[in-house]
Amino acid sequence: MLLNDFFKITSIENAEKHIASIELNPKHPIFNGHFPGNPVVPGVCLTQMVKEVVEHITQKKLWMVTGDNLKFTAILNPGIQPNVILTVGIKNKENGDLQADATVTAEGTSFFSFKGSFKELK
Questions:
Q1: Where are the domains of the chain?
Q2: pTM of the model
Q3: Which of 42, 59, 77, 82 has the fewest C-beta atoms lying within 10 Å of its C-beta?
Q4: Over the range 24-57, which residues count as b (16 or more CB within 10 Å of their CB) and which as e?
């Protein structure tokens, strides 16, 4: 779990899509190896961040079923860009899964986009 350690949610606006303001922790130990002196947020951490924000919004414990389309479009350095916006649309599928469509952006730059589905853990 990365929430409240690697990143924290500073606010969430609920509209057609949920808009979460995220503060990254540039001093997190993961950056000692990824990469010393030039930290880069790992793609797996961006993916996990989407999952945890969807869990926070839905108040459900989830596991990722599919990652249909993940695009890493720019390098996210938490020392330069510690605050990002995670925008996510969540839809219920007929089979009970949740479909999520998310982007991570800051100041006009898109860093990551995600399309996938989650299933509630029971």
A1: 7-120
A2: 0.95
A3: 59
A4: bbeebebbeeeeeeebebbeebbbbbbbbbbbeb
Residuewise pLDDT in 10s, the chain (122 residues): 899 999 999 999 998 899 999 999 999 999 999 888 899 999 999 999 999 999 999 999 999 999 999 999 999 999 999 999 999 999 999 999 999 999 999 999 999 999 999 999 98
Of 98, 10, 102, 89, nearest in space to 50 by CA: 102
Q: Please identify which residue in the block is written with the tokens 């995600």.
A: 114
- Token digits of residue 93: 């599928």
Instruction: Residue count of the chain, please give it.
Output: 122
Name the E strands within the chain: 7-14, 18-24, 62-72, 83-92, 98-106, 109-120
Task: Name the CATH topology of 7-120.
Answer: Thiol Ester Dehydrase; Chain A (3.10.129)
